[in-house]
Amino acid sequence: MDAIDSGIASAAGPISGVEGVGMLPRQNVLDESVWGKSRGLDPALPPYPLVRHLLDAAAMALHLWDVYLADNQRAQIADGMGLVGDLDRARALVGLCAGLHDIGKLSGFQFCSRRAAQSLSSELATGSQRMSTERAGHDVAGMTAAAEVLTALGFNDDDEMSATARVAEIIGGHHGRFHPLENGVGPAFLGDAAWAGQRAAHATAVHEALGAPTAPESFEAPVAVLVTGVVILADWLVSQEGYLLQRQRTLKPSLTAHFRRSQADAATLLRDAGLTPVELERKDFAEAYGIGGEPNPLQQSVMDELPAAAGAGRRGGIMLVTAAPGDGKSETALEAERILSKICGTHGFVFLLPTMATSDQMHDRVARTLRNQSGEDAGLTLVHSMAWLSSAYADDDLDGETVVTCDGDEAPAGRRREADMRPGRWLRGPKRPLLAQFAVGTIDQALMAVLPVRHNALRMLALSSKTFIVDEAHAYDPYMQVLLGRLLNWLGFYGVPVVLLSATLPSSVGDRLVKEYLRGAGHKPTALKRRTFPAPYPGWLYVDGESGRCKQMSQVRRMEQVRARNMRLRVDVERVVHGAKGVAGDRIAVIKRLLEPVATGDGGTALVVCNTVGDAQETYLQLREAIDRRCHEEGSDVQLLHARFPGDVREERTAEVTAGLGRSGPRPVRRIVVATQVVEQSLDLDADIVLSDLAPLSLLLQRAGRCWRHENHWQRHGYPNGRGRPGWSDGPRLVVLDAMAGGGRVPVQWGEVYSEHLLGKTSRKLAEIVGGGIVIPDDVQGLVEAVHGDSEDFDWNVPGGHKVKAWAEHKGKETAERSMAALRAVSRARQVGGLHELHHMEGEEDEWEVSTRLGADSVRLLCAYAQEDGRLTFDAEGKEPLPEATKDGRMPAGGVRQVMRRTIPVRADWFRDAEPDIFSPPSSWAEHPMLGDLRVLRQPVRQGKAQAVKVGDKTLRLHQDLGFIRE
């Protein structure tokens, strides 16, 4: 009889132990009446035996090691266990951690399901009364029992942070939250000697199936985090209802046969989940990205020079890419990924951006790139909180299979959080999208890995297998910069290649991020203090993680890029006054004057960027009346784009704006786009002129990057429709509407959108350059440093006491944000002691409770219409009623999408003065995990016309053309 089967012989004899372990007593013959899974399975059959589930998880962990984990992850896990070069032993130990994850179910857990408990053998059922009176999670129970179980397997427990303690922490963390080792369960919950014997018997069965691996030499905390991620993923994959039902109905007679079957089935499970990595057919540059022509000098330099700069890359490295907007940084990053993934042993990438809108657009670009390289079967996900609303996710894909992650002991109190519209593809389920080989999403989803939220270990596993790309690295406030630095610290430990992209990154910020990465890779802070890492502009810099060696783009190629992209941006400053009609400098009158050539001349395109939604709405109304109506017969077009449109309307408007001002056209005869900050990041727009409210200088440069963006390309390949620039546009031009010029103040309606100190510095710097313009790219970095750099905090010679106050407020806010981030984030990788430190905040916090961004909390608002007959509808005409959930709160996926696609993100404090129930969702939605959290604006319909809703001293309404209005 095979060793793995000896434990389920009847009373024929004892279990054969591994070498050095005494013979287990006769009563410890493995008892398969101990159940591991019950809920959702066939009630006519006994529950799924625990030992079978443990073997399933162990087999899946082995397959994950072989197929899913990247080379850098395998090497780091082995190194962190003190097993350099002994990958097979590290592999078996990872399998053992997965195979022991539910050992705590051999406890009072067995009685949390009355039906399942009835299947227990009489020996174990005896004395169950005391066990069932206590309540505890089986994760904590397993952590408590781990030392005894591992001792039976030959592990030593010599010190507090021994390998035994690490495995115990992993077992305790397999539901996504680590616990202090001292916070165990009482002995009554673990049961008597018979239960202890069964825990040993179950563990021995798993241990022997894996070849009886011996304890590792060490077990570093960051490595234990990765192993926990593997355990969680393995558990989830083998806990799917369909898989469990099939196994329950066709149990193999022996554990050996069962384990072999589990190993064989693991490949299918992984493939069906979309997690099996694929090899792309690497095409040449033009074919890969669908771009006509050759790579620019920046891109060519990465292709030619980065391989030598990266060297062996055993410990990863970090790369900064700086270039003006429109210089193809995205394609540059993807070329760098191709090189770095091969050198550093990662596969795939995660591409992160500041907003959901920019993520949606980048997802489409990446999808095309993958298709161009035969990557149709590659796992590609869109990763942000509303990703499932994307048109890439069809309604018929939203109903899927349940993952049975627990059976009662961790069921949350209160509102049911089980998703009612589970994505059909496994990767689209909660917390899973980052696990895909290729992922595009918001930076927030990655930053969760270094916040004390559940399953941060799973996020760390997902991120550490890929090249990590962050676009718009300048766009994050000090709070987010600290979180990003902390994440880079962990990625440095794991040897993950990192690529940071920016058009306006202050050198001090880039320097801090590089040093955080190198600290994670093992470089001493004292040594790093003596070094700086200034990235050339334009160009790139690469710092090797192991040696700290720094290489830059060659000067020859950099000058080629400068010549290829050289452009003089004309910068004009117009002093304006907000909300003062008829006076000199009236902002709207100035805008109308500046856009007169568009309206009456040769046409053309203009982009007007406003700092608030209210300003954008008012500007649009005035321009539509003055320009659009006058030129209607000639085809004039004024468009409005901001973040306070219902989701489906915003998506449609973004597509229209991008089509009209995009690279491929067709180019409109006339087009004026009035927008907010939504257009300044990653949207690929080209206008003949850009008008912008005063903003911090780095953002003005971003906005200016939407002016004549594709001129070089069109010069080589022809203009869309064959229509060139209008006669009045003789070069790229940025007009800044400066309310602070000549001693003015920040408009009241802007609130705290931007720091008054940065606005003031920008205004003064613009006054110095008016007339001469800005040479791009030569002048960009110097301007950014002058306003945003650390070299000079404040010029005390600047007159005006309010300027001193503005500087103090700016520095105080920056310091507070950095301090808050440092308090919230987990420790740096090499400073973690116990894994419970990764969940140091009290309570059951999760993604929706720990913010990756500071500022006013937001909620999602649905603007509905209350008809006179009491019905709630999507439309004022009353033809589209809101969908109703069933009594148990369930709703078809299409109904959920229909609602959520029409929601608008707004500030939560807008509803502070409202009666508690005024904005509550319909009663049938109350228990739904998404719909139950909505605010619903019920706009009364009287005689066919929708009425505004008064809240405090404001009125709220949804306007078909202007979007959501608060006035």
Automatic annotation (TrEMBL):
Which Pfam families does the record match to this protein?
Answer: Cas3-like_C_2, Cas3_HD
The answer to whether keyword Metal-binding applies is yes
The HD Cas3-type domain covers which part of the protein? 43-237
**The organism sits in which domain of life?**
Bacteria
Q: Which InterPro entries match?
A: Cas3-like_dom (IPR054712), CRISPR-assoc_Cas3_HD (IPR006483), CRISPR-assoc_Cas3_HD_sf (IPR038257), DEAD_box_RNA_helicases (IPR050547), Helicase_ATP-bd (IPR014001), Helicase_C-like (IPR001650), Helicase_Cas3_CRISPR-ass_core (IPR006474), P-loop_NTPase (IPR027417)
What UniProt keywords are attached to this protein's entry?
Antiviral defense, ATP-binding, Helicase, Hydrolase, Metal-binding, Nuclease, Nucleotide-binding
What family is this protein classified in?
Answer: In the N-terminal section; belongs to the CRISPR-associated nuclease Cas3-HD family.
PANTHER family in alphabetical order: CRISPR-ASSOCIATED ENDONUCLEASE_HELICASE CAS3 (PTHR47963:SF9), DEAD-BOX ATP-DEPENDENT RNA HELICASE 47, MITOCHONDRIAL (PTHR47963)
What name goes with this protein? Answer: CRISPR-associated helicase Cas3
* Organism of this sequence: Streptomyces poriferorum
Q: What is the lineage of its organism?
A: Bacteria, Bacillati, Actinomycetota, Actinomycetes, Kitasatosporales
